Amino acid sequence: MGSIMSRARMGGMAIALAGGRLIDGNGGNPVPDTTMVIEGDAITQIGPRAQTPVPPGAQVIDVSGKTVMPGLIDCFVNFVGEAAPDHMDPFTRLPSYPPLQGVATVRRLLDAGITSCRGMGSTHYAGIALKHAVDHGLVPGPRITVSGYTLEPVGYQREWVPPEQYTVHPGRCTGPWEARQAVRMNLLNGADFIAVNVGGAVGSNIPLPLERNDWTQEELDAVVDEAHRRGVVASADNCYVDELIGMCARAGFDGIIHGGLVSERGLETLAR
């Protein structure tokens, strides 16, 4: 659906989807054999095929046997980085590679019916660059809300890195004031929200326990306060266990991600 809307926008012609089963997303029963007319950015007509006229000159696409429905939303996508069998693989790539990888990823999302997504952190602000490319019509893709670098305390490592290759990037910080600076730098470079790595990493090549935490409460408090002061949300990623969930809840994070090992005690903390 997203790629069809893009074609309607760019081509300036009406497009009619004829014969599909309609699910409108409002809870009603599916409606068989419908016609939907798209002109520019808008759906201008929709209804049973026999009762819905098609504008002269419109491109008619037969979608009989298929389902027409609102676009899906994916709230967590890593579209500018994939796991590699060789853990040194990321160090062999140029900074320009992730956005190119992302072009292919967002096209696959669009073809799968995902018309809005939330992109998590990336190095070199690659996700932000990809979002702008989609917004400007350079590449096809869904609507994207994206973070910049994922914030991490200095010393946090998702995998083993040779000492000479460990870098302090704009997302790494020590202390509350550097945490605020990391938030500001991400927003300066176009981030829509702030993402934070809290606990240990799944799939790491070092034995990093899931309950691992290198943040202080003061640092997490500063991240959230700075984000909220600037009108954006903050999400706590890799936040698995009760202790980490409690720290992030006290800091006021807007989202807890990957909290799969939470107990009743952790849920009570969230409720309070």
Put simply, the count of helices is 7
Q: Count the E strands.
A: 13
Radius of gyration: 22 Å
Shape summary: elongated
- Structure class: alpha/beta
Largest sheet: 5 strands, mixed
Q: Output mean pLDDT.
A: 87
Q: How far is it from the N-terminal to the C-terminal residue, by CA? A: 41 Å
In which range does the helix fraction lie? 25-40%
Query: Which stretches are poorly predicted, pLDDT < 50 over at least 5 residues?
Result: none
Q: Helices and strands, in N-to-C order?
A: HEEEEEEHEHEEEHEHEHEH
The oligomerization state is single chain
Beta-strand percentage?
15-25%
What does this structure look like?
- The chain is an alpha/beta fold and 272 residues long.
- It is 29% helix and 22% strand.
- It contains seven helices and 13 strands.
- The chain has helices at 2-11, 97-111, 126-135, 176-188, 217-229, 242-251, 264-271, and strands at residues 15-22, 31-39, 42-48, 59-62, 67-68, 72-77, 114-119, 143-146, 152-153, 172-173, 194-197, 234-237, 255-256.
- The strands form four sheets. Strands 1, 2, 3, 4 and 5 form a five-stranded mixed sheet that branches.
- Helix 2 packs across helix 3, helix 4 packs parallel to helix 5 and helix 5 packs across helix 6.
- The longest helix is centred in the middle third of the chain and has 15 residues, at 97-111.
- The two termini are 41 Å apart.
- The mean pLDDT is 87.
